Amino acid sequence: MGASETLPMTATGEINAAIIPDLRRKRMERRSFLDTLFTLGLWGIAAIGAIPLFSVLYMLITKGGARLSLDLFTQLPPAGFMQGGGFGNAIVGTIVMVGVACVIAVPLGICGGVLTGAMAPKSKTAKVVRFIGKVMSGFPSILAGVFTYAWLVVGLKTYSALAGGVALSILMLPIVLLTAEQAVAMVPKRMKDAAYGMGCTHTQVILKVVLPASLPSILTGIMLGIARAAGESAPLLFTALFSNYWMRGLMEPTASLSILIYNFSGMPFPNQIELAWAASLVLVLIVFTFNILSRILGRPKY
Amino acid sequence: MKLDPFCAEQGGSGEPCAPSFLEILCDRGFRWLTFAAGGIVISLGLYIIFEIGSAAVPAMKDNGLGFFVSTTWDVARNEFGILAEIWGTLYSSLLALLLGGFFGVSIAIFFTQGYLNHRVAQVFRSIIQLLAAIPSVVYGLWGIYVVIPALRPVASWLNEHFGFIPFFGTKLSGPGLAPAVIVLAIMILPTVAAISQDAFKQIPYKVKEAAYGMGTTRREAIMLVMLPTAANGIMGALVLGFGRALGETMALAMLIGNANQISLSLFSPAKTLASLLASNFPEAGAVEVSALMYAAVALLIITVGVNALGAFIMSRSKRQEAI
């Protein structure tokens, strides 16, 4: 940079360098030196922070991708020293249990969100619901499993896909509820007022104006909830347990991808460890899909 | 065209009318439905606490408060204590918070303080969010086959040369505290980074302009002005990250080694409340289940307490912004 660009000029256009001090910072001055150091440090930290992500993705693609084939989706987990095999039953189990969780958590979460966001935001009930939703969103996932064990597994005397689904729904519910509440509350007041002005009842306003307008954000919450539930393993550990066979009903122990990874990760057989990596890849793909879906749905339209 | 709701020719009723009986019925019904949903959510929350609490009652009677200061976990003699697990939970979470918090806040600064082009920062932010989406078991698997082998030579070198420092007092024989802490730090990093970024973004632009106007370097503006201004929000981020670390289960159960001991060493195996539940529950008999429920109550109290503290700090920082 030339000196003439940075030095101010007098009215006549001449540079009076003698009376104006040089305000530029010297590169080797202590303060600028520290600033450069700080910038380099931040770049370094960001680079180190990126290592784990790329390492995880690299391992998933090389180790898991190597085993990717149709067999994985159609065959049962192998026992002991057996070669080959897949985890078709675990994929089915994960889908069924996430489905059960959706059936419970989605209607409950949306209705609860409508209550706290639009129907009666200032009522005592709404305040308590909001509080419980927030507490539940910070709930350690293993406690959902402990609770479901004490309630359903002991009660029904069997490990089951139903219990697994219920445990997952406890983790999904606060996500759906809190995002639905926010989405519903974000609908501009003038839209609601216009509907009331037309003579709509409270319910008509909510069903015909508020819910359609907030639908994309609510779907975002549901997608995030599904992504969370699909990846969870702690709540399934002693509610759905695991099974080496195809699923026959909701009331029996059921396999899931995450528990398969957990079980196989500690086995001394290379075949099982390869399968664990392949299952991780499939699981991460499922979770990322729903995550990205939520992002696309949640993108502002205007 | 101007629509007149009362004009019969335009599809209206011809005259203003009150909601019909059916509409009122629907209104009442829907209102009742949402309140019922609210009631179910509330009773579910209470029932969770009741169910875990009541299942823990026998163990509470047997072990009393001694449960929290004893380190024995002996099923045969019916003696249970969770001091080692409480220590392991707090120690691992605190170390993870130091590591993950430092990286998380630094990355938040890096993304928000003009080091990156706006668009590039957006891309990196999405990448960090993907880190948060990777399931816990996958991190556990990665920890077993990547972190532990990578850490072993470093750990044995540190142990040989600095073994007199209690933190490096033992060898890393496989699973242990250090790999668990590293994975835990990676898992809380996105939480801390996201909430701290919000805290930085809430600072009015004029504050930054004022600092630069005084002739500060970027480092001085960040360290002396931006960080103190965002301190409350960052504090909230750290507490919420800590809360997440406390309840994390699967990755820890796979990596921490599940040894019932209290040790300062980073390379010795340990145990946390959540990993105790995960590893002992499946094979537990009735008496042990009750003791595990008691441990679950302890975990519930700790995490809910920490999360409530985090929410309180966040709400205070929001109010401060409003002023």
Features:
heterodimer; A: 302 residues; mainly alpha; MetI-like fold; 11 helices; 70% helix; B: 323 residues; two-stranded antiparallel ribbon; 72% helix
Q: Care to give the gist of this entry?
A:
Chain A contains eleven helices and no strands. Chain A is mostly helical.
Do you know the CATH topology of chain B? Answer: MetI-like fold
Q: Over the alpha carbons, how many angstroms does the gyration radius of chain A reach?
A: 28 Å
**The biggest beta sheet of chain A, please?**
none
CATH top level of chain B is Mainly Alpha
CATH superfamily of chain B: MetI-like
Helix content of chain A: 55-70%
Q: What is the total number of structural domains of chain A?
A: 2
Main structural class of chain A:
mainly alpha
Task: Describe the 3D structure.
The complex is a heterodimer of chains A (302) and B (323). Chain A has 302 residues and is an all-alpha fold. Chain A has 2 domains: 30-67; 74-298, MetI-like fold, CATH 1.10.3720.10. Chain A contains 11 helices and no strands. Chain A has helices at 3-6, 30-67, 71-74, 88-119, 124-137, 141-156, 161-185, 189-197, 202-231, 257-265, 270-298. Chain B has one domain (82-322): Orthogonal Bundle (MetI-like fold), CATH 1.10.3720.10. In chain B, 72% of the residues lie in helices and 1% in strands. Chain B has 10 helices and 2 strands. A two-stranded antiparallel sheet of chain B has the order 1-2. In chain B, strand 1 (73-74) and strand 2 (79-80) form a beta hairpin. Chains A and B meet through helix 2, helix 4, helix 5, helix 6 and helix 7 of A and helix 1, helix 2, helix 3, helix 4 and helix 7 of B.
